[in-house]
Write a structure and sequence with these properties.
435 residues, alpha+beta, 11 strands, 15% strand, transmembrane helix, four-stranded antiparallel β-sheet, EC 2.7.13.3, Helix Hairpins, Heat Shock Protein 90
Length: 435
């Protein structure tokens, strides 16, 4: 089944781990780059601010020193800046101890005013730190320069830009991980589809070099497996076919010999061997059930015809539900599957019920009986060739152990699936699901 992208990025999976590693690495790199940018921006802004402060203070003090005393108060508001202001007089008292940042600003003011104006500095904290520079103009008027160091404001659009950047980054990481994992997902799906008797699904040999190389190796492996299975089945079919001639000769000799109980036993044994040979040939051919061309099939008429054939021979086969559906399938293979399932159920239960349902684009044909059933741990084993359950099904009932195996092989060959389960209250349900 194809899984969604979100599911492929689950925390315990390879996709989730790759996503986490790439995300943490890129986020850490982005955070480091942002820190370097902020520090560089702060240093550049500080250098510009100090240079501007030095120049503005020198110009402002020289201007106030040359203005008449009665005009100075009107100029103070014009000289004010967001981070510093001028005040006539000594200003509020402060502490002489300065922080490193305040000391750096004080050095710039000293360079701007010395040697003409000696400057004294102190700091006022209420609640933020303020630096005060005290000096005396040429006419003896005191002047205080109050500096309020503040951080440069962050642009209002910057958080939104960072959020968009993170979203784009996460999307790119997710896309990269998905592209990296897509070949692995396709490879796993191709492996899941490998089943004996079904046409091999070729892995597309496109993409990066590593994917193409893996695809070629996978396709070559499928070809080797198919050749191996085909060779074994051909050997089985050849042996089974060649056994028919000596069996026929043995039957003729026994039938023309002395009649009696011994002859009957020999004929019964030959019948059993001949049935085994026929089933062996049928099993070998069932793997190649896809050779038959698929056609549109009236399933109602098809099953009714099959059931009527059983009625003509006096067998108890009934139909519980039979919708009007027309699937595309291989009729001869489907008939052999249903016949094997019905014969198996009749052999052990004596009565069979067919139930056909259609749901979600799938057709389910159930063959139901009230026989002895199958132990739960053997429900899959009985689909293998030559497997019989002696504890619940006696040899007196006949059978070669190939009927269910042939049905399972043919179901796979026509693109369906055969499953067995015990019914509540006793009996077995053989369920054939057609896509």
């Amino acid at each position: 089944m194809r899984r969604s992208g979100m599911r492929r990025l689950r925390p315990g999976g390879l996709g989730g781990r790759l996503f986490l590693i790439l995300a943490l690495g890129l986020l850490g790199t982005q955070a480091l780059a942002a820190l370097v940018m902020v520090l560089e921006r702060d240093q550049s802004a500080r250098a510009v601010m100090l240079t501007t402060l030095q120049r503005d203070v020198a110009v402002a003090v020289a201007l106030l020193d040359r203005l008449p005393p009665d005009e100075r108060a009107a100029w103070l508001l014009l000289l004010d800046r967001p981070t510093y202001r001028f005040e006539l007089g000594a200003g509020p008292p402060g502490a002489p101890a300065l922080s490193p940042r305040a000391e750096m600003i004080a050095d710039e003011i000293r360079r701007a005013l010395r040697p003409r104006f000696p400057v004294r500095f102190d700091a006022v904290v209420d609640p933020t730190e303020r630096l005060q520079a005290h000096l005396v103009l040429a006419d003896g008027t005191g002047l205080t320069i109050e500096v309020r160091p503040t951080a440069r404001p962050v642009a209002a659009w910057l958080p939104a830009a960072l959020a968009v950047q993170l979203l784009v980054l996460m999307a790119c990481i997710g896309l990269a991980v998905r592209l990296a994992l897509r070949p692995l997902t396709r490879f796993a799906e191709a492996v899941d589809r490998i089943e004996p008797g079904r046409p091999a699904a070729r892995f597309t040999e496109t993409g990066p070099d590593e994917v193409v190389r893996t695809a070629k190796a996978f396709n070559a492996m499928q070809d080797r497996i198919a050749r191996h299975l085909d060779e074994r089945l051909r050997i089985l079919a050849a042996i089974s076919h060649d056994l028919q001639t000596p069996i026929t000769r043995m039957r003729l000799r026994v039938e023309t010999g002395i009649q009696g109980p011994e002859q009957d036993r020999l004929l019964a044994d030959l019948d059993a061997v001949e049935a085994l040979v026929r089933e062996g040939i049928a099993y070998a051919r069932s793997v190649h059930g896809a050779v038959e061309a698929p056609v549109r099939l009236d399933l109602r008429a098809f099953i009714e015809s099959l059931v009527f054939d059983y009625w003509d021979t006096g067998r108890d086969v009934t139909i519980a539900a039979l919708p009007d559906v027309t699937p595309t399938t291989r009729p001869r293979a489907l008939r052999r599957i249903l016949a094997n399932l019905i014969d198996n159920a009749l052999r052990y239960a004596g009565r069979v019920e067919l139930d056909v349902q259609e749901a979600e684009g799938r057709i389910v044909i159930a063959v139901l009986d009230r026989g002895p059933g199958i132990p739960a741990d053997q429900l899959e084993a009985v689909l293998l060739p030559f497997v019989r359950l002696e504890e619940s099904r006696s040899r007196d009932t006949g059978g070669t152990g190939l009927g269910l195996a042939i049905a399972d092989q043919l179901a796979a060959a026509i693109g369906g699936r055969l499953s067995l389960r015990n019914r509540a209250g006793g009996g077995l349900e053989a369920r054939l699901t057609l896509a």
